[in-house]
Amino acid sequence: MQELLERKKGLRRSILIVDDEFVEREVLGAMLCDLYEVKYAENGVTALDIIRRDKLKLSLVILDLHMPELDGYGLLKVIRSDSELRRIPVIVLTAEKEAEVKSLSLGAADFITKPYEAPDVIRARVGHSIELAEGSIIIHETERDDLTGLFNKEFFVEYGKRICAQNENMSMDAIVLDINRFHMINELYGRDYGDKVLKVIGNSLHEIVRQSGGLACRSGTNSFAMYIPHSTALRENLDRYVEKLGQDFGERRVSVRIGVYCDDGSVTDMERRLDCASLACHKLRNSYSTCYDFYNADLHTRELHEERLISGIDRALEENQFRVFYQPKYSIRGDKPVLSSAEALVRWFHPEFGTVSPGEFISLFESNGLIQKLDRFVWNRAASQIREWKDRYGVYIPVSVNVSRVDVFDPEICKVLTGIAEKNGLPCEKLMLEVTESAYTDNALQIIDTVSALRSFGFKIEMDDFGCGYSSLNMLTSMPIDALKLDMKFIRNICTNPKDYRLVGIIIDIARLLEVPVIAEGVETREQMELLKAIDCDIIQGYYFSKPLPAEEFEKLITAEVC
Ligand code: C2E
Ligand code: CA
Ligand code: CA
What we know:
CATH architecture of the largest domain: Alpha-Beta Barrel
Radius of gyration: 34 Å
Number of domains: 3
Structural class: alpha/beta
Bound molecules: ligand C2E, calcium ion
CATH topology of the largest domain: TIM Barrel
CATH class of the largest domain: Alpha Beta
Distance between the termini: 80 Å
Largest sheet: 8 strands, mixed, barrel
Strand order of the largest sheet: 12-13-15-16-17-18-19-20
CATH superfamily of the largest domain: EAL domain
Strand content: 15-25%
Shape: elongated
Protein backbone atom coordinates (compact mmCIF):
# COMPACT_ATOMS: atom_id res chain seq x y z
CA MET A 1 0.00 0.00 0.00
CA GLN A 2 2.82 2.34 0.90
CA GLU A 3 4.39 1.59 -2.43
CA LEU A 4 1.18 2.51 -4.20
CA LEU A 5 1.09 5.79 -2.32
CA GLU A 6 4.69 6.50 -3.22
CA ARG A 7 4.00 5.78 -6.84
CA LYS A 8 1.07 8.14 -6.75
CA LYS A 9 3.31 10.82 -5.32
CA GLY A 10 4.98 11.11 -8.70
CA LEU A 11 1.71 12.35 -10.19
CA ARG A 12 0.54 15.96 -10.09
CA ARG A 13 -2.77 16.07 -8.35
CA SER A 14 -5.52 18.58 -9.04
CA ILE A 15 -6.94 20.75 -6.31
CA LEU A 16 -9.72 23.31 -6.43
CA ILE A 17 -9.63 26.58 -4.49
CA VAL A 18 -13.07 28.09 -3.94
CA ASP A 19 -13.10 31.68 -2.66
CA ASP A 20 -15.03 34.79 -3.75
CA GLU A 21 -12.05 37.05 -2.97
CA PHE A 22 -9.72 37.20 -5.96
CA VAL A 23 -6.62 38.10 -3.91
CA GLU A 24 -7.14 35.34 -1.35
CA ARG A 25 -7.49 32.77 -4.16
CA GLU A 26 -4.34 33.96 -5.88
CA VAL A 27 -2.21 34.06 -2.70
CA LEU A 28 -3.22 30.55 -1.73
CA GLY A 29 -2.81 29.30 -5.29
CA ALA A 30 0.70 30.73 -5.42
CA MET A 31 1.67 28.72 -2.36
CA LEU A 32 0.46 25.47 -3.89
CA CYS A 33 0.87 25.71 -7.66
CA ASP A 34 4.39 24.30 -7.78
CA LEU A 35 3.11 21.07 -6.17
CA TYR A 36 -0.39 20.85 -7.56
CA GLU A 37 -2.47 21.55 -10.61
CA VAL A 38 -4.60 24.37 -9.14
CA LYS A 39 -8.09 25.23 -10.36
CA TYR A 40 -10.17 28.15 -9.10
CA ALA A 41 -13.84 28.92 -8.56
CA GLU A 42 -15.30 32.20 -7.25
CA ASN A 43 -18.49 30.80 -5.78
CA GLY A 44 -20.15 27.60 -4.56
CA VAL A 45 -22.29 27.06 -7.65
CA THR A 46 -19.41 27.22 -10.15
CA ALA A 47 -17.36 25.10 -7.76
CA LEU A 48 -20.02 22.40 -7.69
CA ASP A 49 -20.08 22.29 -11.49
CA ILE A 50 -16.32 21.80 -11.57
CA ILE A 51 -16.42 19.22 -8.79
CA ARG A 52 -19.09 17.18 -10.55
CA ARG A 53 -17.29 17.43 -13.89
CA ASP A 54 -13.85 16.55 -12.49
CA LYS A 55 -14.93 14.26 -9.69
CA LEU A 56 -12.49 11.55 -10.68
CA LYS A 57 -9.55 13.93 -11.08
CA LEU A 58 -9.87 16.20 -8.06
CA SER A 59 -7.73 15.29 -5.07
CA LEU A 60 -8.86 18.09 -2.74
CA VAL A 61 -11.14 21.10 -2.42
CA ILE A 62 -10.15 24.16 -0.38
CA LEU A 63 -13.28 26.01 0.51
CA ASP A 64 -13.98 29.48 1.84
CA LEU A 65 -16.98 29.42 4.15
CA HIS A 66 -18.36 32.85 3.37
CA MET A 67 -19.44 33.24 -0.21
CA PRO A 68 -22.54 34.55 -1.99
CA GLU A 69 -25.06 32.06 -3.47
CA LEU A 70 -24.08 28.61 -2.26
CA ASP A 71 -21.81 29.19 0.73
CA GLY A 72 -19.05 26.91 2.05
CA TYR A 73 -21.25 25.03 4.53
CA GLY A 74 -23.85 24.34 1.85
CA LEU A 75 -21.26 23.06 -0.60
CA LEU A 76 -19.60 20.94 2.08
CA LYS A 77 -22.94 19.32 2.84
CA VAL A 78 -23.55 18.54 -0.84
CA ILE A 79 -20.11 16.97 -1.23
CA ARG A 80 -20.39 14.86 1.90
CA SER A 81 -23.83 13.55 1.10
CA ASP A 82 -23.11 12.56 -2.51
CA SER A 83 -21.67 9.05 -2.69
CA GLU A 84 -19.71 9.90 -5.83
CA LEU A 85 -18.12 13.05 -4.38
CA ARG A 86 -17.66 11.98 -0.79
CA ARG A 87 -14.17 10.63 -1.33
CA ILE A 88 -12.83 14.13 -2.12
CA PRO A 89 -11.42 15.69 1.04
CA VAL A 90 -12.35 19.30 1.83
CA ILE A 91 -10.27 21.82 3.76
CA VAL A 92 -12.17 24.91 4.90
CA LEU A 93 -10.81 28.46 5.06
CA THR A 94 -11.97 30.35 8.09
CA ALA A 95 -11.16 33.16 10.44
CA GLU A 96 -13.48 32.06 13.28
CA LYS A 97 -12.86 29.43 15.93
CA GLU A 98 -16.55 28.27 16.08
CA ALA A 99 -16.60 27.71 12.36
CA GLU A 100 -13.77 25.21 12.73
CA VAL A 101 -15.85 22.94 14.96
CA LYS A 102 -18.92 23.25 12.77
CA SER A 103 -17.04 22.48 9.56
CA LEU A 104 -15.20 19.53 11.09
CA SER A 105 -18.52 18.13 12.26
CA LEU A 106 -19.86 18.52 8.72
CA GLY A 107 -17.03 16.32 7.52
CA ALA A 108 -14.24 18.73 6.61
CA ALA A 109 -10.84 17.05 6.62
CA ASP A 110 -9.01 20.05 8.10
CA PHE A 111 -9.04 23.85 8.16
CA ILE A 112 -6.73 26.69 7.25
CA THR A 113 -7.03 29.90 9.21
CA LYS A 114 -7.10 33.35 7.74
CA PRO A 115 -4.88 35.29 7.68
CA TYR A 116 -2.80 32.52 6.21
CA GLU A 117 -0.20 30.69 8.23
CA ALA A 118 3.30 30.09 6.83
CA PRO A 119 3.22 28.43 3.37
CA ASP A 120 4.96 25.31 4.70
CA VAL A 121 2.21 24.75 7.26
CA ILE A 122 -0.47 25.10 4.58
CA ARG A 123 1.33 22.78 2.20
CA ALA A 124 1.73 20.22 4.98
CA ARG A 125 -2.00 20.38 5.80
CA VAL A 126 -2.97 19.94 2.15
CA GLY A 127 -0.53 17.09 1.60
CA HIS A 128 -1.62 15.35 4.77
CA SER A 129 -5.35 15.55 3.97
CA ILE A 130 -4.82 14.14 0.47
CA GLU A 131 -2.68 11.33 1.76
CA LEU A 132 -5.16 10.36 4.44
CA ALA A 133 -8.06 10.31 1.99
CA GLU A 134 -6.15 8.30 -0.60
CA GLY A 135 -4.91 5.89 2.02
CA SER A 136 -8.43 5.11 3.10
CA ILE A 137 -9.52 4.58 -0.50
CA ILE A 138 -6.66 2.18 -1.05
CA ILE A 139 -7.63 0.28 2.07
CA HIS A 140 -11.18 0.08 0.81
CA GLU A 141 -10.03 -1.14 -2.57
CA THR A 142 -7.63 -3.78 -1.29
CA GLU A 143 -10.06 -5.22 1.20
CA ARG A 144 -12.83 -5.63 -1.33
CA ASP A 145 -13.38 -7.57 -4.51
CA ASP A 146 -13.82 -5.16 -7.44
CA LEU A 147 -16.63 -6.98 -9.14
CA THR A 148 -18.95 -7.77 -6.25
CA GLY A 149 -17.87 -5.20 -3.65
CA LEU A 150 -17.67 -8.02 -1.10
CA PHE A 151 -14.65 -8.41 1.19
CA ASN A 152 -11.82 -10.53 -0.10
CA LYS A 153 -10.94 -13.65 1.85
CA GLU A 154 -8.03 -12.17 3.78
CA PHE A 155 -9.96 -9.21 5.20
CA PHE A 156 -13.05 -11.32 5.72
CA VAL A 157 -11.11 -13.64 8.02
CA GLU A 158 -9.38 -10.73 9.70
CA TYR A 159 -12.64 -8.89 10.48
CA GLY A 160 -14.41 -12.13 11.35
CA LYS A 161 -11.80 -12.88 13.97
CA ARG A 162 -12.22 -9.39 15.36
CA ILE A 163 -15.98 -9.94 15.65
CA CYS A 164 -15.29 -13.20 17.50
CA ALA A 165 -12.82 -11.56 19.86
CA GLN A 166 -15.23 -8.76 20.67
CA ASN A 167 -18.29 -11.01 21.07
CA GLU A 168 -16.90 -14.11 22.65
CA ASN A 169 -20.16 -15.88 23.36
CA MET A 170 -21.93 -15.00 20.16
CA SER A 171 -23.17 -17.94 18.13
CA MET A 172 -22.13 -17.65 14.47
CA ASP A 173 -22.98 -19.75 11.38
CA ALA A 174 -20.50 -20.21 8.54
CA ILE A 175 -21.68 -20.66 4.98
CA VAL A 176 -19.66 -21.48 1.88
CA LEU A 177 -21.19 -21.14 -1.58
CA ASP A 178 -19.65 -22.33 -4.86
CA ILE A 179 -21.02 -21.89 -8.36
CA ASN A 180 -21.17 -25.23 -10.12
CA ARG A 181 -19.13 -25.51 -13.30
CA PHE A 182 -18.55 -21.78 -13.51
CA HIS A 183 -15.99 -22.06 -16.31
CA MET A 184 -18.72 -23.63 -18.44
CA ILE A 185 -20.97 -20.64 -17.80
CA ASN A 186 -18.18 -18.39 -19.07
CA GLU A 187 -17.59 -20.63 -22.03
CA LEU A 188 -21.22 -21.06 -23.03
CA TYR A 189 -22.62 -17.59 -22.37
CA GLY A 190 -19.51 -15.38 -22.37
CA ARG A 191 -17.48 -13.67 -19.67
CA ASP A 192 -19.89 -10.75 -19.35
CA TYR A 193 -22.63 -13.15 -18.39
CA GLY A 194 -20.21 -14.90 -16.01
CA ASP A 195 -19.52 -11.53 -14.37
CA LYS A 196 -23.24 -10.89 -14.16
CA VAL A 197 -23.77 -14.19 -12.36
CA LEU A 198 -21.05 -13.27 -9.86
CA LYS A 199 -22.64 -9.87 -9.30
CA VAL A 200 -26.12 -11.29 -8.78
CA ILE A 201 -24.76 -13.69 -6.18
CA GLY A 202 -22.61 -10.93 -4.67
CA ASN A 203 -25.67 -8.69 -4.31
CA SER A 204 -27.71 -11.48 -2.77
CA LEU A 205 -25.01 -11.95 -0.12
CA HIS A 206 -24.78 -8.20 0.51
CA GLU A 207 -28.51 -8.29 1.15
CA ILE A 208 -28.25 -11.21 3.57
CA VAL A 209 -25.55 -9.61 5.69
CA ARG A 210 -27.38 -6.29 5.53
CA GLN A 211 -30.38 -7.97 7.14
CA SER A 212 -28.70 -10.39 9.49
CA GLY A 213 -25.42 -8.67 10.28
CA GLY A 214 -22.11 -10.43 9.84
CA LEU A 215 -19.74 -10.53 6.90
CA ALA A 216 -19.59 -11.89 3.38
CA CYS A 217 -16.70 -12.35 1.00
CA ARG A 218 -15.77 -13.57 -2.41
CA SER A 219 -13.18 -16.16 -1.52
CA GLY A 220 -12.20 -17.34 -4.99
CA THR A 221 -13.15 -17.12 -8.66
CA ASN A 222 -16.45 -18.86 -8.17
CA SER A 223 -16.71 -19.16 -4.43
CA PHE A 224 -18.15 -17.07 -1.64
CA ALA A 225 -18.37 -17.29 2.13
CA MET A 226 -20.50 -15.75 4.86
CA TYR A 227 -20.08 -15.52 8.59
CA ILE A 228 -23.36 -14.49 10.13
CA PRO A 229 -25.04 -14.50 13.53
CA HIS A 230 -26.63 -17.89 14.20
CA SER A 231 -30.22 -18.26 13.06
CA THR A 232 -32.67 -20.96 14.07
CA ALA A 233 -34.48 -20.42 10.79
CA LEU A 234 -31.40 -21.14 8.68
CA ARG A 235 -32.97 -24.02 6.77
CA GLU A 236 -36.07 -22.00 5.82
CA ASN A 237 -33.89 -19.06 4.84
CA LEU A 238 -31.74 -21.28 2.66
CA ASP A 239 -34.81 -22.78 0.98
CA ARG A 240 -36.04 -19.30 0.19
CA TYR A 241 -32.61 -18.21 -0.99
CA VAL A 242 -32.20 -21.20 -3.29
CA GLU A 243 -35.66 -20.66 -4.78
CA LYS A 244 -34.98 -16.96 -5.36
CA LEU A 245 -31.64 -17.68 -7.02
CA GLY A 246 -33.39 -20.12 -9.37
CA GLN A 247 -35.78 -17.32 -10.39
CA ASP A 248 -32.92 -14.84 -10.87
CA PHE A 249 -31.18 -17.07 -13.38
CA GLY A 250 -34.28 -18.44 -15.09
CA GLU A 251 -33.65 -20.59 -18.15
CA ARG A 252 -29.90 -20.58 -18.02
CA ARG A 253 -28.40 -23.41 -16.09
CA VAL A 254 -26.68 -21.72 -13.19
CA SER A 255 -26.58 -23.73 -10.03
CA VAL A 256 -24.73 -23.38 -6.76
CA ARG A 257 -23.76 -25.67 -3.95
CA ILE A 258 -23.89 -24.43 -0.39
CA GLY A 259 -22.16 -25.91 2.61
CA VAL A 260 -23.24 -24.79 6.05
CA TYR A 261 -21.77 -25.00 9.50
CA CYS A 262 -24.74 -24.26 11.74
CA ASP A 263 -23.38 -23.32 15.13
CA ASP A 264 -24.08 -26.05 17.66
CA GLY A 265 -21.15 -25.16 19.88
CA SER A 266 -19.02 -28.06 18.62
CA VAL A 267 -16.58 -25.85 16.76
CA THR A 268 -15.57 -22.47 18.08
CA ASP A 269 -12.84 -21.14 15.85
CA MET A 270 -13.96 -19.06 12.86
CA GLU A 271 -11.59 -20.66 10.38
CA ARG A 272 -12.50 -24.15 11.57
CA ARG A 273 -16.17 -23.29 11.16
CA LEU A 274 -15.47 -22.18 7.60
CA ASP A 275 -13.54 -25.41 6.97
CA CYS A 276 -16.56 -27.37 8.15
CA ALA A 277 -18.83 -25.42 5.80
CA SER A 278 -16.31 -25.98 2.97
CA LEU A 279 -16.30 -29.68 3.65
CA ALA A 280 -20.09 -29.83 3.50
CA CYS A 281 -19.94 -27.82 0.27
CA HIS A 282 -17.23 -30.00 -1.22
CA LYS A 283 -19.35 -33.08 -0.64
CA LEU A 284 -21.90 -31.64 -3.04
CA ARG A 285 -19.39 -31.10 -5.83
CA ASN A 286 -20.82 -33.73 -8.16
CA SER A 287 -24.29 -32.34 -8.03
CA TYR A 288 -25.61 -30.40 -10.97
CA SER A 289 -28.53 -28.72 -9.34
CA THR A 290 -28.61 -26.12 -6.61
CA CYS A 291 -28.52 -27.65 -3.19
CA TYR A 292 -27.18 -27.18 0.27
CA ASP A 293 -25.96 -29.42 3.03
CA PHE A 294 -25.07 -29.04 6.67
CA TYR A 295 -21.84 -30.09 8.26
CA ASN A 296 -22.39 -32.70 10.90
CA ALA A 297 -20.40 -35.15 12.94
CA ASP A 298 -21.17 -37.95 10.42
CA LEU A 299 -19.52 -35.90 7.80
CA HIS A 300 -16.54 -35.62 10.07
CA THR A 301 -16.44 -39.38 10.56
CA ARG A 302 -16.63 -39.79 6.81
CA GLU A 303 -13.78 -37.37 6.46
CA LEU A 304 -11.69 -39.49 8.82
CA HIS A 305 -12.66 -42.63 6.93
CA GLU A 306 -11.60 -41.01 3.68
CA GLU A 307 -8.33 -39.99 5.25
CA ARG A 308 -7.66 -43.62 6.10
CA LEU A 309 -8.44 -44.68 2.55
CA ILE A 310 -6.06 -42.05 1.21
CA SER A 311 -3.24 -43.04 3.51
CA GLY A 312 -3.83 -46.71 2.71
CA ILE A 313 -3.46 -46.58 -1.06
CA ASP A 314 0.28 -47.31 -1.32
CA ARG A 315 0.11 -50.28 0.96
CA ALA A 316 -3.00 -51.52 -0.84
CA LEU A 317 -1.16 -51.42 -4.17
CA GLU A 318 1.85 -53.24 -2.69
CA GLU A 319 -0.31 -55.91 -1.07
CA ASN A 320 -2.61 -56.45 -4.04
CA GLN A 321 -5.70 -55.32 -2.18
CA PHE A 322 -6.95 -53.84 -5.45
CA ARG A 323 -8.29 -56.34 -7.93
CA VAL A 324 -9.60 -55.78 -11.39
CA PHE A 325 -12.97 -57.24 -12.32
CA TYR A 326 -14.30 -57.58 -15.84
CA GLN A 327 -17.84 -56.98 -17.01
CA PRO A 328 -18.69 -58.36 -20.44
CA LYS A 329 -20.15 -56.30 -23.25
CA TYR A 330 -22.29 -58.10 -25.79
CA SER A 331 -22.99 -57.12 -29.34
CA ILE A 332 -26.70 -57.48 -30.06
CA ARG A 333 -26.61 -56.67 -33.75
CA GLY A 334 -26.97 -60.27 -34.91
CA ASP A 335 -29.56 -62.91 -34.01
CA LYS A 336 -27.63 -64.01 -30.98
CA PRO A 337 -25.72 -61.82 -28.53
CA VAL A 338 -21.98 -62.14 -29.03
CA LEU A 339 -19.30 -61.35 -26.44
CA SER A 340 -17.48 -58.39 -27.90
CA SER A 341 -15.33 -56.91 -25.16
CA ALA A 342 -15.18 -56.15 -21.44
CA GLU A 343 -14.89 -53.22 -19.09
CA ALA A 344 -12.24 -53.34 -16.37
CA LEU A 345 -13.63 -52.19 -13.02
CA VAL A 346 -11.49 -51.95 -9.95
CA ARG A 347 -12.42 -53.44 -6.57
CA TRP A 348 -10.73 -52.79 -3.26
CA PHE A 349 -10.60 -55.67 -0.79
CA HIS A 350 -9.62 -53.74 2.29
CA PRO A 351 -8.22 -55.74 5.23
CA GLU A 352 -10.25 -53.69 7.68
CA PHE A 353 -13.25 -52.25 5.80
CA GLY A 354 -13.96 -55.28 3.60
CA THR A 355 -14.99 -54.61 0.00
CA VAL A 356 -14.90 -50.93 -0.71
CA SER A 357 -16.76 -49.93 -3.87
CA PRO A 358 -15.23 -47.60 -6.46
CA GLY A 359 -18.09 -45.20 -5.77
CA GLU A 360 -16.45 -44.57 -2.42
CA PHE A 361 -12.87 -44.00 -3.47
CA ILE A 362 -12.68 -42.98 -7.15
CA SER A 363 -13.85 -39.40 -6.73
CA LEU A 364 -11.84 -39.18 -3.51
CA PHE A 365 -8.69 -40.20 -5.37
CA GLU A 366 -9.60 -37.86 -8.18
CA SER A 367 -9.71 -34.95 -5.80
CA ASN A 368 -6.10 -35.47 -4.72
CA GLY A 369 -4.51 -36.87 -7.84
CA LEU A 370 -3.98 -40.39 -6.40
CA ILE A 371 -6.26 -41.74 -9.11
CA GLN A 372 -3.34 -41.64 -11.54
CA LYS A 373 -1.49 -44.27 -9.55
CA LEU A 374 -4.52 -46.48 -9.29
CA ASP A 375 -5.48 -46.10 -12.93
CA ARG A 376 -1.99 -47.02 -14.09
CA PHE A 377 -2.24 -50.15 -11.98
CA VAL A 378 -5.62 -51.03 -13.53
CA TRP A 379 -4.42 -50.28 -17.08
CA ASN A 380 -1.41 -52.54 -16.58
CA ARG A 381 -3.50 -55.35 -15.15
CA ALA A 382 -6.09 -55.09 -17.91
CA ALA A 383 -3.44 -55.09 -20.63
CA SER A 384 -1.67 -58.14 -19.26
CA GLN A 385 -5.06 -59.83 -18.95
CA ILE A 386 -5.83 -59.24 -22.63
CA ARG A 387 -2.43 -60.76 -23.45
CA GLU A 388 -3.04 -63.74 -21.20
CA TRP A 389 -6.44 -64.48 -22.76
CA LYS A 390 -5.09 -64.09 -26.26
CA ASP A 391 -2.32 -66.55 -25.48
CA ARG A 392 -4.66 -68.99 -23.80
CA TYR A 393 -7.73 -68.82 -26.09
CA GLY A 394 -6.28 -67.49 -29.31
CA VAL A 395 -8.65 -64.47 -29.45
CA TYR A 396 -8.33 -60.89 -28.44
CA ILE A 397 -10.99 -59.78 -25.97
CA PRO A 398 -10.62 -56.01 -26.09
CA VAL A 399 -10.92 -54.45 -22.65
CA SER A 400 -11.94 -50.90 -21.93
CA VAL A 401 -10.36 -49.14 -18.98
CA ASN A 402 -11.62 -45.99 -17.29
CA VAL A 403 -9.52 -42.90 -17.84
CA SER A 404 -10.20 -40.36 -15.15
CA ARG A 405 -10.63 -36.68 -15.93
CA VAL A 406 -7.45 -36.19 -13.92
CA ASP A 407 -5.42 -38.51 -16.17
CA VAL A 408 -6.25 -36.30 -19.12
CA PHE A 409 -3.97 -33.61 -17.70
CA ASP A 410 -1.04 -35.98 -17.32
CA PRO A 411 1.45 -34.92 -20.00
CA GLU A 412 2.85 -38.47 -19.92
CA ILE A 413 -0.45 -40.20 -20.63
CA CYS A 414 0.34 -41.17 -24.23
CA LYS A 415 3.76 -42.46 -23.24
CA VAL A 416 2.32 -44.45 -20.34
CA LEU A 417 -0.46 -46.07 -22.35
CA THR A 418 1.62 -46.86 -25.43
CA GLY A 419 4.29 -48.25 -23.08
CA ILE A 420 1.72 -50.55 -21.48
CA ALA A 421 0.44 -51.75 -24.87
CA GLU A 422 3.97 -52.35 -26.08
CA LYS A 423 5.09 -54.18 -22.95
CA ASN A 424 2.22 -56.62 -23.41
CA GLY A 425 2.63 -56.90 -27.17
CA LEU A 426 -0.83 -55.48 -27.86
CA PRO A 427 -2.09 -53.36 -30.72
CA CYS A 428 -3.34 -50.16 -29.04
CA GLU A 429 -6.88 -50.70 -30.33
CA LYS A 430 -7.31 -53.68 -27.99
CA LEU A 431 -7.11 -51.40 -24.97
CA MET A 432 -10.12 -49.13 -25.21
CA LEU A 433 -10.36 -45.98 -23.15
CA GLU A 434 -13.51 -44.77 -21.43
CA VAL A 435 -13.60 -41.04 -20.75
CA THR A 436 -16.64 -39.65 -19.01
CA GLU A 437 -18.63 -37.09 -20.96
CA SER A 438 -18.45 -34.46 -18.23
CA ALA A 439 -14.65 -34.47 -18.54
CA TYR A 440 -15.15 -33.30 -22.12
CA THR A 441 -17.46 -30.49 -21.17
CA ASP A 442 -15.28 -29.49 -18.20
CA ASN A 443 -12.26 -28.85 -20.30
CA ALA A 444 -13.01 -29.31 -23.94
CA LEU A 445 -9.76 -28.02 -25.42
CA GLN A 446 -7.40 -30.02 -23.23
CA ILE A 447 -9.34 -33.21 -23.63
CA ILE A 448 -9.69 -32.91 -27.37
CA ASP A 449 -5.91 -32.53 -27.61
CA THR A 450 -5.17 -35.50 -25.38
CA VAL A 451 -7.78 -37.76 -26.89
CA SER A 452 -6.74 -36.90 -30.45
CA ALA A 453 -3.15 -37.77 -29.59
CA LEU A 454 -4.24 -41.09 -28.07
CA ARG A 455 -6.34 -41.93 -31.11
CA SER A 456 -3.40 -41.25 -33.39
CA PHE A 457 -1.66 -44.18 -31.67
CA GLY A 458 -4.68 -46.37 -32.40
CA PHE A 459 -6.48 -46.30 -29.02
CA LYS A 460 -10.26 -46.40 -29.27
CA ILE A 461 -12.13 -43.84 -27.19
CA GLU A 462 -15.55 -44.44 -25.65
CA MET A 463 -17.44 -41.49 -24.28
CA ASP A 464 -18.74 -42.78 -20.94
CA ASP A 465 -21.89 -41.74 -19.06
CA PHE A 466 -23.19 -40.02 -22.17
CA GLY A 467 -26.23 -37.83 -21.56
CA CYS A 468 -25.12 -36.43 -18.21
CA GLY A 469 -22.45 -34.01 -19.26
CA TYR A 470 -24.38 -31.42 -21.26
CA SER A 471 -22.43 -31.75 -24.50
CA SER A 472 -23.99 -29.65 -27.19
CA LEU A 473 -24.55 -31.18 -30.60
CA ASN A 474 -22.09 -28.70 -31.91
CA MET A 475 -19.41 -29.87 -29.47
CA LEU A 476 -20.12 -33.51 -30.18
CA THR A 477 -19.42 -33.28 -33.88
CA SER A 478 -15.95 -31.93 -33.17
CA MET A 479 -15.10 -34.48 -30.49
CA PRO A 480 -12.78 -37.31 -31.37
CA ILE A 481 -14.63 -40.43 -30.21
CA ASP A 482 -15.17 -44.01 -31.35
CA ALA A 483 -18.24 -45.01 -29.32
CA LEU A 484 -20.96 -43.47 -27.18
CA LYS A 485 -21.75 -45.14 -23.90
CA LEU A 486 -25.21 -44.24 -22.74
CA ASP A 487 -25.54 -43.37 -19.09
CA MET A 488 -27.43 -46.03 -17.20
CA LYS A 489 -30.02 -43.63 -15.83
CA PHE A 490 -31.69 -43.58 -19.26
CA ILE A 491 -31.91 -47.35 -19.29
CA ARG A 492 -33.39 -47.67 -15.82
CA ASN A 493 -36.84 -46.48 -16.83
CA ILE A 494 -36.73 -47.14 -20.52
CA CYS A 495 -39.57 -49.69 -20.30
CA THR A 496 -41.86 -47.56 -18.17
CA ASN A 497 -41.10 -43.99 -19.13
CA PRO A 498 -41.82 -43.13 -22.77
CA LYS A 499 -39.71 -39.97 -22.44
CA ASP A 500 -36.59 -41.95 -21.55
CA TYR A 501 -37.33 -44.35 -24.36
CA ARG A 502 -37.60 -41.52 -26.88
CA LEU A 503 -34.44 -39.93 -25.50
CA VAL A 504 -32.48 -43.12 -26.01
CA GLY A 505 -33.83 -43.21 -29.57
CA ILE A 506 -32.58 -39.66 -30.13
CA ILE A 507 -29.17 -40.47 -28.69
CA ILE A 508 -28.89 -43.46 -30.98
CA ASP A 509 -29.74 -41.14 -33.90
CA ILE A 510 -26.97 -38.80 -32.77
CA ALA A 511 -24.55 -41.70 -32.68
CA ARG A 512 -25.58 -42.60 -36.24
CA LEU A 513 -24.87 -39.03 -37.25
CA LEU A 514 -21.42 -39.28 -35.69
CA GLU A 515 -21.02 -42.74 -37.22
CA VAL A 516 -20.11 -44.41 -33.95
CA PRO A 517 -21.68 -47.42 -32.19
CA VAL A 518 -23.81 -47.04 -29.06
CA ILE A 519 -23.21 -49.03 -25.91
CA ALA A 520 -25.99 -49.23 -23.32
CA GLU A 521 -24.87 -50.01 -19.80
CA GLY A 522 -26.87 -50.92 -16.74
CA VAL A 523 -29.14 -53.23 -18.72
CA GLU A 524 -30.72 -55.51 -16.17
CA THR A 525 -33.73 -57.13 -17.81
CA ARG A 526 -34.71 -58.92 -20.97
CA GLU A 527 -37.33 -56.27 -21.80
CA GLN A 528 -34.73 -53.53 -21.62
CA MET A 529 -32.44 -55.52 -23.86
CA GLU A 530 -35.17 -56.17 -26.42
CA LEU A 531 -36.32 -52.58 -26.50
CA LEU A 532 -32.73 -51.46 -27.08
CA LYS A 533 -32.29 -54.01 -29.83
CA ALA A 534 -35.49 -52.74 -31.47
CA ILE A 535 -34.10 -49.22 -31.64
CA ASP A 536 -30.78 -50.34 -33.05
CA CYS A 537 -28.51 -50.18 -30.04
CA ASP A 538 -25.25 -51.96 -30.87
CA ILE A 539 -23.74 -53.21 -27.65
CA ILE A 540 -25.07 -54.00 -24.20
CA GLN A 541 -23.42 -54.20 -20.80
CA GLY A 542 -25.23 -54.94 -17.57
CA TYR A 543 -26.42 -57.40 -14.98
CA TYR A 544 -28.76 -58.95 -17.56
CA PHE A 545 -25.70 -60.61 -19.05
CA SER A 546 -23.36 -60.51 -16.11
CA LYS A 547 -22.07 -58.58 -13.14
CA PRO A 548 -18.40 -57.57 -13.18
CA LEU A 549 -16.45 -60.77 -12.58
CA PRO A 550 -13.00 -61.76 -11.38
CA ALA A 551 -10.77 -62.80 -14.31
CA GLU A 552 -11.10 -66.55 -13.57
CA GLU A 553 -14.87 -66.37 -13.78
CA PHE A 554 -14.87 -64.15 -16.82
CA GLU A 555 -12.88 -66.87 -18.56
CA LYS A 556 -15.92 -69.14 -18.42
CA LEU A 557 -17.72 -66.66 -20.67
CA ILE A 558 -14.82 -66.78 -23.10
CA THR A 559 -14.75 -70.54 -23.22
CA ALA A 560 -18.53 -70.66 -23.70
CA GLU A 561 -18.09 -68.39 -26.70
CA VAL A 562 -14.91 -69.72 -28.23
CA CYS A 563 -14.95 -73.41 -27.55
P1 C2E B 1 -18.81 -46.63 -14.80
O1 C2E B 1 -17.54 -46.51 -15.58
O2 C2E B 1 -20.01 -45.98 -15.36
O3 C2E B 1 -19.04 -48.17 -14.61
C1 C2E B 1 -20.27 -48.80 -14.59
C2 C2E B 1 -20.74 -49.06 -13.20
O4 C2E B 1 -22.05 -49.62 -13.26
C3 C2E B 1 -19.91 -50.09 -12.45
O5 C2E B 1 -19.96 -49.74 -11.09
C4 C2E B 1 -20.69 -51.38 -12.70
O6 C2E B 1 -20.44 -52.36 -11.73
C5 C2E B 1 -22.09 -50.84 -12.60
N1 C2E B 1 -23.03 -51.69 -13.35
C6 C2E B 1 -22.78 -52.46 -14.42
N2 C2E B 1 -23.92 -53.07 -14.86
C7 C2E B 1 -24.90 -52.66 -14.04
C8 C2E B 1 -26.31 -52.94 -13.98
O7 C2E B 1 -26.89 -53.67 -14.77
N3 C2E B 1 -27.03 -52.31 -13.00
C9 C2E B 1 -26.44 -51.48 -12.10
N4 C2E B 1 -27.19 -50.91 -11.18
N5 C2E B 1 -25.11 -51.20 -12.14
C10 C2E B 1 -24.36 -51.79 -13.09
P2 C2E B 1 -18.68 -49.77 -10.20
O8 C2E B 1 -17.82 -50.92 -10.56
O9 C2E B 1 -19.14 -49.64 -8.79
O10 C2E B 1 -17.92 -48.46 -10.64
C11 C2E B 1 -18.45 -47.20 -10.42
C12 C2E B 1 -17.69 -46.17 -11.16
O11 C2E B 1 -16.37 -46.06 -10.64
C13 C2E B 1 -17.50 -46.47 -12.63
O12 C2E B 1 -18.63 -46.08 -13.33
C14 C2E B 1 -16.29 -45.65 -12.96
O13 C2E B 1 -16.64 -44.33 -13.20
C15 C2E B 1 -15.51 -45.72 -11.69
N6 C2E B 1 -14.44 -46.72 -11.80
C16 C2E B 1 -14.48 -48.05 -11.61
N7 C2E B 1 -13.25 -48.57 -11.81
C17 C2E B 1 -12.43 -47.56 -12.14
C18 C2E B 1 -11.03 -47.45 -12.48
O14 C2E B 1 -10.27 -48.43 -12.53
N8 C2E B 1 -10.56 -46.19 -12.75
C19 C2E B 1 -11.36 -45.10 -12.73
N9 C2E B 1 -10.82 -43.92 -13.02
N10 C2E B 1 -12.66 -45.16 -12.44
C20 C2E B 1 -13.20 -46.38 -12.15
CA1 CA C 1 -16.81 -46.74 -17.45
CA1 CA D 1 -20.64 -45.31 -17.30
